[in-house]
Write a structure and sequence with these properties.
Structural class: alpha/beta
CATH architecture of the largest domain: 2-Layer Sandwich
Number of helices: 9
Distance between the termini: 46 Å
CATH superfamily of the largest domain: Dihydrodipicolinate Reductase, domain 2
Strand content: 25-35%
Number of domains: 2
CATH topology of the largest domain: Dihydrodipicolinate Reductase, domain 2
Shape: globular
Order of helices and strands: EHEHHEHEHEHEHEEEEEEEHH
Helix content: 25-40%
Largest sheet: 8 strands, mixed
CATH class of the largest domain: Alpha Beta
Number of strands: 13
Radius of gyration: 20 Å
């Protein structure tokens, strides 16, 4: 397998996770890393000995040995680094959401598609957004089962409950507390809106209600109803109460139910196993397998081959629905 050079822009929790996962994949080598915060750069350098950490973003993005730029900064800065990578002729792998402002998101779609505003530097096939369900074996099994007539899908219920927001492991990401770019609806629910698009092709928002404790603060409750291919979908999320946190999607059929729990676990509920049983044939380490499969798809994208990663247009559709829920 050919090894491609990667630049990681943003060295928070998500960026460091990419450093770990890319280090385990034989198709990538991180050749440059950058963060605006000197403390984050120092921490990454200490945690990953030998990591080439640079003090300017352009020194990472424009390196000749960089083939793909992974953008892992807060959402309001996505467009800046995506445009810089595009201008340098690099493939782009951007964290979700694509952005916050819908007009800016539309402009990035045009940029990625080689439209009038793009400059014709890099083809659309070399731009993707990191939705974790894109390479999940559990999600692919779920999709195959629930779309059959035999399953008789009747409803989808998505539930998120967080004891605190941001979660303890995100405490350093203060932007997650703010309404301008944070909140669990953008950070977590966007993955599940993508899941709906992956399963059904599209989704129509029917209604939504969001609550914030104060102006400028991220939401503490969010409720939405959608319809996907004639199937009603109910989403609800909240912050407070007591542990443990819950993140779960339930696909209710005529006589059984599939639940996607803790992001990567697929459980079947049937008459003989009302408490649920794991679906057979899935990886023993579903989280690790999903990360590595995502990187394998990214490798194919960088090589100009067919892949299943969501493009900017799909990510913009997710962004549209999320921002409509929040407003």
């Amino acid at each position: 397998m050919k090894q491609y050079g990667m630049a990681v822009i943003g060295l928070g929790v998500v960026g460091r996770r990419m450093l770990e996962q890319a280090g385990r994949h034989r198709g990538f080598r991180v050749v440059a890393a950058f963060d605006n915060a000197s403390a984050a750069r120092s921490e990454a350098a200490a945690s990953f000995p030998g990591l080439p950490v640079v003090a300017r973003a352009r020194d990472a993005i424009e390196r000749l040995d960089v083939d793909v730029v992974y953008v892992a900064v807060p959402p309001l800065a996505h467009a800046e680094y995506v445009r810089a990578a595009h201008a340098a002729g690099k493939a782009v792998f951007c964290e979700k959401p694509l952005g916050i402002d819908l007009a800016e998101g539309a402009a990035l779609v045009e940029l990625a598609s080689g439209g009038a505003a793009a400059g014709g530097v890099a083809p659309r096939s070399r731009h993707a957004v990191n939705f974790v369900f894109a390479s999940s074996a559990a999600v692919e099994t779920l999709r195959r089962v629930v779309t059959t007539r035999a399953f008789g899908l009747r409803a989808v219920e998505i539930e998120m409950r967080f004891f605190e927001w941001p979660r303890a492991w995100q405490a350093g990401a203060t932007w997650l507390r703010r309404a301008d770019q944070g909140g669990f609806t953008r950070e977590v629910l966007s993955h599940y809106v993508y899941l709906l698009l992956r399963v059904f092709g599209d989704a129509t928002l029917l209604g939504a209600c969001t609550q914030r404790p104060s102006a400028g603060a991220a939401e503490t409750a969010s409720v939405a109803t959608l319809r996907c291919a004639g199937v009603p979908v109910a989403m609800q999320g909240s912050v407070g109460g007591q542990p443990p946190d819950v993140v779960e999607a339930r696909f209710v059929g005529a006589s059984r139910e599939l639940r996607l729990r803790n992001w990567y676990e697929l459980v079947e509920h049937v008459a003989e196993a009302p408490g649920g049983r794991p679906v057979a044939g899935l990886p023993e380490d579903p989280r690790g397998a999903s990360y590595q499969a995502q990187l394998t798809q990214l490798h194919a994208m960088v090589a100009g081959k067919a892949h299943g990663l969501p493009d900017f247009e799909t990510a913009w559709r997710v962004q549209q629905i999320i921002e409509e829920i929040l407003t």
